[in-house]
Specification:
There is one protein chain. This protein is α+β, with helices and mostly antiparallel strands. The protein has nine helices and 21 strands. It has helices at about 5-25, 30-55, 165-185, 210-240, 265-270, 330-340, 350-370, 440-460, 495-500; strands at about 60, 65-70, 75-85, 90-100, 105-110, 120-125, 135-140, 160-165, 185-190, 195-200, 205, 210, 290-295, 305-315, 320, 325-330, 380-390, 395-405, 405-415, 425-430, 490. The strands form five sheets. Strands 14, 15, 16, 17 and 20 form a five-stranded antiparallel beta sheet that branches. Strand 10 (about 195-200) and strand 11 form a beta hairpin. It is elongated and about 130 Å long.
């Protein structure tokens, strides 16, 4: 090939350049392939760190418990390490150091814990290395690149505890005596610090030994003491026990079994068990008889020499009383009612009603509190228990008959009383309407106090004029719901009408 060939000339012109490029590629310390590998390694490291940040371990420790050895030479620190995060990949360290200076007392390796794994740790620290008085130490677990010191995740990785060299001997004595007592006795009662051991010659209780005879005598004395205590409590209950507010009531009238039922005495005895109270609440239909009872004193004053002992309310249906609805009124209400009854003779009707309204509200609350929702329509019985002084308190029965749209008194008598002692018991029973048809509960709650006010007012209002026999007029003791006094006639001397009723 000649020198004038263009291809040869071009090849010669570029040959030094190619040699220079080949020389640079050969001498370059970072070839392009290495650069690509470094890039992939960097990306893999970033991905690994991101994955590790999503799932990290989380160590937590419990409060360290400090106990002293039986010889008092060392302190035993126990705690529990828990991994609340993911599985740990590397070992960590448990260090115990002074809290103020940071000087390390003990450092041990902590193996890598799996997720939710619990690792109990115990360290025995010799007390010779600590000064007198309180020494505060700090224990740290897993403070490393995974849980950096001061980070929120590492807050539960460290705890403080106290060691006092002076407390070690006393704790050792207590521990030694407790272990000895447990070992020496067959039965130990920790709360009472009593140790029991059975021996051949008897029973050992703590440091005292009791023979079989002594134990038998002790049991007999204990049994006798319990019996004496029971008798003493029985006597005290009999002395200081209050009588039941509403025990079973028995009429105080003497029942004569040999009385002719067709005679006046026989008819009166039969009628007096039908009298419920002193009010005539029955409608006046022709020839209808009604019997009432009035409580007076020797001078004929209504409720004179009588006091109210107890009051209760109770619902009833066609089968009898509903016992679970019984409500005994508080003694405070009974005292207030007796106080008003004592001065009711000085009040007119309006003043008496105003005084009785607060008492009626309290009674209605106590009564309605025991009434179940499904039984609100049932009638309510109100029982008032009285007691009178024997020889002064009197019970007067009055028999009325409706004629010409008015109640006529046709008979009046006092019953023969049985063995009553110093007090005469008596009871009045009234009936209150339950929830009426078309009446809601709010209206029912507002009506009951008004009905009670009217009922109590009729019982206590006794502005009466004395009759020729020394008793009050027949119609003056009626409640406002009964017939007016103008429609009540005076008693007749002829008992023929009473015998015919």
């Amino acid at each position: 090939m000649t020198s004038n060939d263009p291809a040869a000339l071009a090849s010669k012109a570029h040959s030094p350049v190619r040699a220079q490029v080949r020389h640079r590629q050969k001498d370059s310390p970072f070839p392009w392939r290495a650069a690509v590998c470094c890039l992939f390694a960097l990306l893999f490291s970033v991905a690994s760190l991101a994955l590790a940040q999503d799932e990290v371990r989380d160590y937590a420790i419990t409060t360290p418990l400090v106990d002293y050895s039986s010889d008092g030479a060392s302190a035993i620190v126990t705690l529990t390490v828990t991994n609340q995060g993911s599985d740990a990949v590397e070992e960590s360290t448990i260090t115990i150091a002074y809290n103020d200076s940071g000087r390390i007392v003990e450092s041990v390796d902590l193996p890598a814990l799996a997720a939710q794994e619990v690792y109990p740790y115990s360290a025995e620290l010799t007390l010779e290395q600590f000064p007198e008085g309180d020494v505060f130490l700090k224990i740290e677990v897993g403070i490393d690149q995974y849980e950096l010191a001061g980070s929120p995740i590492a807050r539960d990785n460290s705890q403080l505890f106290r060691i006092n060299v002076a407390e070690a001997p006393e704790a050792a004595v207590i521990a030694g005596s407790a272990s000895d007592s447990v070992a020496d006795y067959d039965l130990v009662v920790p709360l009472l610090n009593i140790g029991i051991k059975i021996l051949e010659e008897g029973i050992q209780i703590n440091d005292s030994v009791f023979s079989g005879t002594q134990i038998l005598v002790g049991i007999l004395v204990l049994a006798l003491g319990l019996v004496l205590i029971w008798f003493l409590s029985l006597i005290l209950r009999l002395i200081f026990r209050r009588s039941p507010a509403f025990d079973v009531w028995q009429p105080p009238y003497a029942a004569e079994a040999y009385v002719d039922p067709n005679s006046t005495a026989g008819r009166r005895q039969a009628w007096q068990y039908h009298a419920q109270n002193s009010a005539i609440n029955a409608p006046c239909t022709p020839e209808r008889p009604v019997v009432v009872k009035r409580l007076v004193d020797a001078e004929g004053h209504s409720l004179g020499s009588w006091i109210i002992k107890a009051i209760r309310s109770e619902q009833y249906d066609i089968y009898g009383r509903v016992s679970r609805s019984e409500a005994v009124m508080p003694r405070k209400i009974v005292k207030q009612l007796n106080k008003i009854a004592g001065r009711s003779g000085e009040m007119d009707n309006q003043q008496l009603n105003n005084a009785l309204q607060p008492i009626a509200k309290q009674m209605s609350k106590a009564a309605l509190r025991r009434i179940e929702k499904q039984n609100r329509s049932l009638p309510i019985a109100l029982d008032i228990r009285f007691e009178g002084s024997a020889g002064e308190a009197r019970i007067v029965f009055e028999l009325y008959q409706c004629r010409n749209a008015a109640w006529h008194l046709i008979d009046q008598w006092e019953p023969e009383l049985g063995m009553i002692g110093s007090r005469v018991p008596e009871q009045f029973t009234y009936s209150l309407n339950g929830m009426l048809p078309g009446e809601n509960y709010s209206e029912f709650k507002a009506r009951v106090p008004h009905d009670l006010t009217v009922l109590l007012g009729g019982l206590l209002y006794h502005h009466q004029s004395a009759s020729a026999t020394g008793m009050s007029s027949a119609g003056s003791d009626q409640s406002p719901d009964s017939s007016s006094g103008s429609n009540l006639d005076a008693p007749s001397d002829d008992t023929t009408e009473a015998n015919n009723v």
